[in-house]
Design goal:
The structure is a single chain. This protein is mainly beta. Helices cover 10% and strands 32% of the residues. The chain has 3 helices and 12 strands. A hairpin with a 4-residue loop joins β5 and β6.
């Protein structure tokens, strides 16, 4: 299989830069199988599309501000994208730019001079880094990762979290879940549709 077979052109005008409100007003395409015409519905219709006894699984993981726009002590720009924690000491596997020019042990700083990351050894396509800051500073310095085709920054970063997000740890938003609302979850329960929480770190 050639993944290029799945490439398609999508004009910029068709890419929403800000999420729809309310969340469950997002459009939903329902495919009922061969020979049947797909239905154009909305996420708020989900409770009517499922049957009692069905199960909806939701990912409770919160997205962390994993993109760090930093600079070297010499003044050059650098960026660290945290991918996966390695241990409980603040070590992460990360994508680092400019990866080839950064030395092992080099410390990258935020705009206010806060020392944020110590760059470590290469591990394949990534670098091992050690965070030198706590969660509060990470929330202040980092950005929630967005796809490159989203260029508009929202005033409320909570809009990139699901309404049921609990445990921090994900570096990518569970995008389908962003459309669910407390009201929709309540309606699912009233219809006898179970909702099962899991924690998937991505």
């Amino acid at each position: 299989m050639d993944v290029a077979d799945f490439d398609y052109g999508l004009p910029a005008s068709a890419i929403a830069q800000t999420p729809v409100e309310p969340r469950d007003a997002a459009r939903l395409l329902v495919d009922r199988g061969p020979g049947r015409t797909p239905e154009h519905r909305h996420v708020h219709d989900l409770a009517d599309l499922l049957d009692p006894g069905d199960l909806v699984v939701v990912n409770e993981t919160r997205v962390i501000p994993a993109r760090l726009r930093l600079h070297r002590h010499t003044g050059g720009a650098a960026e660290v994208f945290l991918l996966e924690p390695v241990d409980d000491t603040g070590s992460w596997d990360a994508l680092v730019r400019p990866g080839a020019r950064l030395r092992d042990g080099e410390v990258l700083v935020a705009a206010d001079g806060t020392e944020v990351v110590e760059v470590g050894a290469r591990t394949g396509d990534t670098r091992r880094v050690r965070l030198l800051i706590g969660d509060d500073d990470l929330a202040r310095i980092g950005d929630v990762p967005l796809p490159p085709y989203i260029t508009t920054t929202l005033d409320d970063p909570e809009r990139y979290q699901t309404v049921y997000a609990r445990q921090p740890g994900s570096v990518a938003a569970p995008t389908a879940g962003l459309h669910l609302t407390p009201e929709l979850l309540r309606r699912l329960g009233e219809r006898g549709i179970d909702v099962a929480p899991v924690e998937l770190v991505v």
